[in-house]
Each structure stands twice: as C-alpha cells, then as structure tokens.
Amino acid sequence: MSELPGGSPTFEEPDFSQLSEEADLPEEEGETAPEEEAGEPGSFEEANAAEGGRAKAVLEHLARSIVDDKEAVVVEAKHERGQLRLYLHVAPSDMGRIIGRRGRTAQALRTLVRAAAATEGADTFVEIVD
C-alpha cells in the first residue's frame, strides 16, 4: 500500500503473473486430483449418501457443539416408511442442553436437519433418545 498526499492509503493490485498453474497439479503418479476422488468408492460423497449423510452430519455437528460430553453424541440413521429417521443419543447430563427451554433448541435442531436433508431430496425426522 502507498499513501496519497492527503494521508489516505491506496490499494495496489497484486501481481499474480509469478504464479504457475502447475502448482495445483499432483506431482506423483499415485496421487489423484480432488475432482477425481469425488466419484470413487469410499469417498466422502458416497459415505454421506449412504445413510442420509448430510442430515446426519449436520445433526452430529450441531449436537457436538452444544453438549459438554462430545464423545457421548451418537446419531443412528434408519430408513422407515420412506422417511429417514435420525436418533440422537447424548449423555443424560446434556439432555437439558439439547432440548432447551420449552423444546426450542430441539425444534431448531429438527428444522436445520430437515433443511439439510431437503437439499438431498430426503424427508427427515429427528428423535432425541434418552
């Protein structure tokens, strides 16, 4: 940055001519580019699609961010009657945090998970289990 006579700074455009396009390519024969990995068996996308992936991941992430005992968070996914049912298990001491006052936190979790599932075209129900 340089300054104008009045003391206000000016922005100078960075010079990107030094960068090469080859820097992002894999160097070894065994390596694959991220675009190629997406469709391979065992990839992240396949794991997400297997059992309601995105909705399950969203529920697990949100629950872990709310509770104190993060290791106790378990999300089970089952397909019943054309609907994905997610069962959330947390430690008994964290049950109040997950449910929230008048069930508001639980309802917010259900809304966010349903929105995440809708992006995949799935209908989802979240049940909080003791």
Would you kindly provide a written description of the structure presented here, covering whatever features stand out?
- By secondary structure, the protein is α+β, with helices and mostly antiparallel strands.
- It has a domain of 78 residues: K homology (KH) domain (GMP Synthetase, Chain A, domain 3).
- It has five helices and five strands.
- The strands form two sheets. Strands 3-4-5 form a three-stranded mixed β-sheet, covered by helices on one side. Strands 1-2 form a two-stranded antiparallel ribbon.
- A hairpin with a 5-residue loop joins strand 1 and strand 2.
- The termini are far apart.
- About 9% of the residues have low confidence.
Features:
alpha+beta; 18% strand; GMP Synthetase, Chain A, domain 3; 5 helices
pLDDT under 50 segments (min length 5)? Answer: 33-44
User: Largest beta sheet: what is the strand line-up?
Assistant: 3-4-5
CATH superfamily name of the domain at 52-129?
K homology (KH) domain
- Remind me, CATH topology of the domain at 52-129? GMP Synthetase, Chain A, domain 3
The H/E string reads EEHHHEEHHE
Over all CA atoms, what is the radius of gyration?
23 Å
Computed structural class: alpha+beta
- Beta fraction: 15-25%
CATH class of the domain at 52-129: Alpha Beta
Range of helix content = 25-40%
